[in-house]
Design goal:
The structure holds 3 protein chains of 3 kinds.
Chain A: E1 5-15, E2 21-32, E3 37-41, H1 48-56, E4 63-71, E5 74-75, H2 81-84, E6 92-96, H3 109-117, H4 125-138, H5 155-166, E7 173-177, H6 185-202, E8 205-210, H7 213-219, E9 222-227, E10 230-236, H8 237-242, H9 247-255, H10 293-297, E11 303-306, E12 309-311
Parallel strand pairs in A: 3-8, 3-9, 6-7, 7-8
Antiparallel strand pairs in A: 1-2, 1-4, 4-5, 9-10, 10-12, 11-12
Helix pairs in contact in A: 3-4, 3-5, 4-5
Chain B: E1 11-12, E2 21-22, H1 28-38, H2 40-62, H3 93-129, H4 131-146, H5 149-160, H6 164-191, H7 194-202, H8 206-242, H9 253-262, H10 265-268, H11 271-299, E3 314-316
Antiparallel strand pairs in B: 1-2
Chain C: E1 4-13, H1 19-23, E2 31-41, E3 46-50, H2 57-64, E4 72-77, E5 80-81, H3 87-94, E6 97-100, H4 114-125, H5 131-144, H6 150-154, H7 163-175, E7 181-185, H8 193-210, E8 213-218, H9 221-227, E9 230-235, E10 238-244, H10 245-250, H11 255-263, E11 313-314, E12 323-324
Parallel strand pairs in C: 3-8, 3-9, 6-7, 7-8
Antiparallel strand pairs in C: 1-2, 1-4, 4-5, 9-10, 10-12, 11-12
Amino acid sequence: MTPLLEVQDLHVWFEDAAGNEIAAVRGVDLEIDAADRVGLVGESGCGKSTTILAIMGLLPSNATVAGRVLLDGEEILAGGDRTIRPHRWRDIAMVFQGAMNAFNPVRPIGVQIADAVQIRGGRTRKEAAERARELLELVGIPRERAGGFPHQFSGGMRQRAAIALALACEPRILLADEPTTALDVMVQAQIMLLLEHLCSEQGLALLLVSHDLSLVLDLCPRMNVMYAGEIIERGPSDALADTPTHPYTRLMFAATPDIFDESPLASIPGAPPSLDREIVGCPFQPRCDRAFERCVNETPVLKHSQEEQEAACHLNDLGRKASPDSSPANRTTGVRNGAA
Amino acid sequence: MLSEDAPLVTDQLVRGGIAQPAVLVRSPWRELVRSVRSSPSSVVGAVVLGALVLIAVLAPVIAPYGPNQQVGVPFASPSGTHLLGLDDGGYDVLSLLMWGLRVSLLVGFAATLIASLLGAVVGVAAGYFGGFVDGVLMRVTDYFLVIPLLPLMIVIADAWGASLFHIIAVIGLLSWTMTAIVIRAQVRSVRERVYIKRAVALGATHRRIIFRHILPQVMPLLVANTVLNLAYAVFTETALAFLGLGDPNQVSLGTMIEHSFLRAAISSGAWWAVVSPGALVAIAVLAASLLGRTIEDSLNPRLRTAHLSSRRFRVREIARARATEPEVA
Amino acid sequence: MALLEVEDLRRYYGRGRTLSEVVARRHAPPVRAVDDVSFELHKGEMLALVGESGCGKTTTAQTVLRLNSPTAGTISFAEQDITKLHHRELRPLRRRMQIVYQDPYESLNPRYRVWQTLVEPLEIHGLGGSHAERRELALEALRRVELQPAERFLDRYPHELSGGQRQRVAIAAALIVGPELLVADEPVSMLDVSVRAGVMGLLKRLCRDDEVGILMITHDLPLAAHFADRIAVMYLGRIVEIGGARQVLRDPRHPYTRALRDVAPRRGRERAERAQILKGEPANASAIPAGCRFHPRCPRAEDVCSRTDVGLTHVEGGPANHEAACLFANEIRND
């Protein structure tokens, strides 16, 4: 069955003010099926937000894109804005971190959502307004508040409204880029619950981008881990947490605090590589606690490592575990409190 | 342990939702120089202004004749010896231009100095201390803002006579207000930066914070403002002199125009006596404006509009390069 | 006696009146950002003030450092009452109480090289005589925060450093004067996950080895659980529970603490099983609910809760320092 959304060998380059070319995304493949919930995790600068923007065709003019984005098997990236535009918001919609601040402060929220509903066409203003109220209810905002202005809503409610806005044209996929990062934990939990319901009840597919592994682990059965512009491991989220096959994945999980786990937290020394030059060998090698000679010069390829997981790590070729001991990797720390 | 060759990263603007590495310029001064160099109009402005200043400074050396040297018949046409002819008194217009430029620029710079100093002091004090001090200073600024230039100058000329000193004082005293307002706004925003709050928490005195942290940030804007004030001051001096309120003992570009006008240069056909000083004033003001505008623009925090552009990203074709599976050892 | 003692602290902000209030001649109710907070911080201890936005934790930290004036209550630092000191008298004390801010991108002057940032506190407080001595102190501070080789960092500008490195520089600048109290306001929330444990570990070591008392402000309960010795949970300007970190999380006696704990995603437990996600959001700090301020959102609230404002009381069956502000604290035992 063709996946709903497929990304093949996506590359994105930016030209900075000084004229250097920066390779922000270096060959990313993704597959999302209908009603699927997939996570894309990584730290700042890994390219996850850029990937999302590329799929939506929202890259700025100093960006260059290569690769394929297929919606229902149909290529939409090749023609640039022209081919992506018809699908934007109608098939693929997006919620991002600052979305709660993206509302026009001088127009009521209901009106702005109704505007979005009318992108699809075929409705009168009255029908659109009613649909806007329905959408607000769907995301947990009482219909009576549709006439309210953005400043009259709390941050959490505005983010819900942003989700309603994204759902205005009944898209089949929702791309959520750090949708709850700026919100309190309680509101965050509310929004996550909302997303879960929306996916199960509306059949919406979700690509959740976040730096918070526990959040993604909670909501998405499948996860991709990004580093320095490429995906270095992917597979079922539980498997990645329990038996990671890439040291970065292991260390990231070990660096995420869990209330009920008292083992010491890991940290990773150093910093990600500069993306303005070619990267030789494994991009993670300078910071990896399991690196060996081969890692320095030979770039690992993302391929099957165990069960349903794929990882880009030479250790898997040699049958070595991604963790220092021979026991299944859980929270064993790679490096402790290095300077970073 | 950070290894010796761990790459030092450039900042990543992920917080804005767009993961786009950006090189932050650390110094507004560098930015200032860079912006001046980047735009042709500002380069022209800087060069021209520099040339004019040079001429003014060197006037005693390079002017063919003195400012009070009568060399011929009034309103004589331009000729080989007198490239721009003679004015109403028989003085060499070209030489007078240089001497006049000297005075005009002197007034301009002096008045601007007063305006910038006053404006900076008031602006920094109002912006930094806020509250009551801000209120009082801003009311004072408001009062000065509405004092009309011409009546004031007339009154002063009448009461104390019109000398260079008076003109400089009046122009300076009436143009510091814009500087104060602009500087105050900038100081207010800089004051909210976290590193300022950190300095306060460290126990830094007001003096240290103002002089070591705030002023350096504000200086480039002050420079831009000063250059623009210069344009205004030169022009205003010309206008006042033309209206007869200039120093009668000095030759400035404004008095040159005034004399020509009063002595019917135009009806005599002696266009060189009117157009030359007028054109020079215009060039000076234009040069200063071009320079000042560009500096000011470069210092304003620019809206990040890259993401608002009509999404004209480029699409590139690459061969689907897939590394072949390495042989399993 | 404790390094820092705070009693009945209140910090209210006036709010400008709306037009209707002016017309109706009503006073605008103040924003009660900190509304009767008391706690102690000891040498060599890390106390985490945990809560959601608007709970007053940042205001508490700022008031405790006398970066503003309390509306009521007392603050004692090293056995000295600093509540009413004038800011000129406070200046020499500032050497002993320092702060590290949340935003590593903003807390360093972008035009100062690292050595200038580090030397400034020395200049302000007249420490370290010659330039060479100050440079040596700066190198020492960089080594303490594990930025090695220290010499290489001295001449850098902030924009040449990563977030984690900048935060370490900020910590070094705070430590260089040898403070006894350090307030860390969300010290790692803007850093990458892989870097957080490193910086927190550094703070923890400073706490232990140099006996610095650290007051950490955070919204991240799991992080506090890992690093803090004690946790104080704040809600709408009040501490609703306080005690040893592990203790409070193992056996929370206030419904809010329990909700905060249970809402964190956890392996192996379906979301549906977790204790309920609270509805709505905290009330406005200028319109605090009557009675127990948490009662409108509390899953266990009863009638009496809307009438009784509860203070912190020792919980039964727990260590002496475990207190909770709930009428039913002793019935909410761990399950």
